[in-house]
Specification:
single chain, 336 residues, alpha+beta, 7-stranded mixed β-sheet, 4-stranded mixed β-sheet, 6 helices, 16 strands, 36% helix
């Protein structure tokens, strides 16, 4: 949980053109532009820690003011960067059959490798800022890469951005169609945010169950005492009706308190697209044919020279990257 705090902070710093590296699991070293350091209220060279015992470090917790200040940085939304990276080496156009058949493995069909062509492939990095609020407020940022051709999330661009000399302007003929990307990116962002908040949600649920149990036990004790009083004193008539009214009032008060408790514990999440970076890489796009019974379907596999791997395909039911898969009746790729 503590590391998630620093990971969120590191993402905000990186998006704001700073540098952040983990020194230890609970320690993050950062070099910040002066403008960012001023907004965060820290020196431009600073070490953040989730341990209060660490001296000479800026202490970070979920209630730290620094996360409120991050809202100012995340408020600069709508940033878009479009760039290309020219691969300095030779891109081969053959010899991929063995690599593909070892990487992309259909469990109930055949895969045929047709032809390979060097081509520009867009890789999109989506940065989505979110705010989660229950009894306390938490800010976060999820970042992920999406292949603009295969629509596979969580891919890597390797060391493509390490060498500034390889950066070049985007060729005019290259255009990215955002139509299939936007709904997929929204779904991946939602799932990523839910996964990041899952430990906190479980903690909130345990706390709610505990408080509900304590509250119910307290009021049930009061009700039992009233019943015991009625039996002990053998109340009848108006005296008994008065105690029964107290019991009804206690039940209503319990219901009201439980309702207030649920409202205070309710989690609301809002998210906004902070920025997008599109990086065009020179890759090898390999046309493949999938065959199941009498059905056929052609798909593109990507060889990325910066990672030197055949990238996985996407499960079309869960949006997760997969290597072993089955083909359903509609020839959709699904996790095996």
């Amino acid at each position: 949980m503590a590391q998630q705090l620093l990971e969120a902070l590191a993402q905000v710093i990186t998006i704001s053109e700073g540098i952040a590296e983990f020194n230890q699991e609970d320690t993050l070293e950062a070099a910040l532009p002066q403008s960012v350091a001023k907004v965060l209220g820290v020196p431009d060279s600073v070490t953040f820690s989730t341990s209060a015992a660490q001296r000479d470090c800026a202490f970070v917790s979920y209630n730290s003011e620094i996360f409120q200040r991050c809202e100012t940085l995340l408020g600069d939304k709508g940033r878009f960067i479009n760039l290309a990276v020219e691969y300095p080496g030779y891109l081969k156009q053959s010899g991929f059959k063995k690599l593909i058949t070892e990487t992309l493995i259909p469990q109930n069909g055949l895969l045929r490798v047709l032809k390979a062509t060097p081509a520009w492939t867009p890789y999109c990095q989506f940065n989505v800022a979110y705010t989660a609020e229950a009894e306390e407020k938490r800010l976060g940022l999820v970042s992920f890469w999406l292949n603009g051709v295969t629509l596979v999330p969580f891919v890597s661009v390797g060391d493509a951005l390490f060498w500034e000399s390889d950066l070049t302007s985007v060729p005019e003929e290259l255009e990215l169609d955002p139509t299939p990307l936007v709904p997929l990116a929204s779904e991946v962002a939602r799932e990523s945010i839910e996964a990041e908040l899952a430990p906190w949600c479980h903690s909130l649920e345990r706390k709610l169950n505990r408080d509900q149990r304590r509250l119910t036990d307290y009021y049930q004790t009061i009700i039992q005492e009233i019943h015991h009083k009625c039996q002990k004193k053998k109340l009848e008539g108006e005296a008994k009706d008065k105690e029964m009214s107290r019991i009804e009032a206690t039940h209503r008060e319990l219901e009201r308190k439980l309702s207030d408790l649920q409202q205070r514990s309710a989690l609301t999440i809002s998210a906004e697209l902070h920025s997008v970076m599109v990086v065009w890489l020179q890759t090898v796009q390999i046309e493949c044919e999938l065959v199941r019974k009498k059905n056929k379907r052609n798909l593109i596999a990507i060889y990325n020279p910066y990672t030197q791997i055949i990238e996985p395909w996407r499960c079309e039911l869960t949006n997760q990257p997969i290597n072993k898969f089955i083909l359903d009746e509609q020839m959709r790729i699904a996790r095996a």
